[in-house]
Please model this.
Amino acid sequence: MEPQDKRQQWLDEAAAMRAGLAAPGVADRAILRSSSGMEFLQGIGSGALPPAPIADLMGILPISVEPGRTVFQGTPALAHYNPSGVVHGGYAATMLDTALGCAIHTMLPAGKGYTTLELKVNYLRAMTDKTGPVRAEATVVSVGGQVGVAEARITDANGKLYAFATTTCLVFDISAA
Model:
């Protein structure tokens, strides 16, 4: 597929996903406790559950969720710039942390949650408002009873690599309160 065609495909997929999402919010804790990670994330993708407010703030959308793998998309904009005139590294870190954590979440049964213990990001090139859509694609390396590890990459529609990351997440029981 030609890069321009792939870019348009990405934009079309994002528009379709955006149209089906609920308003941003925080899911009820009982729903989080009673759903597997896959069920929970599929609920967000179907519009049955709200996407996280941070994703709305940053313009990050879930594109694909399957066991052990997630894809999130965003389009860097002027609102994401730092004072040096390029997209702030926190934008890439947020995209990567979202994709990585959600990849681990896809592997968790009902009653289990996760939180990031460590995020290691390597920045390879700057993004600007001219970069166009980028995707953070994450895959699980390992998920055990207490620890999950995943890796991710941010690329554009041309396949150009902007950043990559690894994470270690704590896996825990979700309490009722």
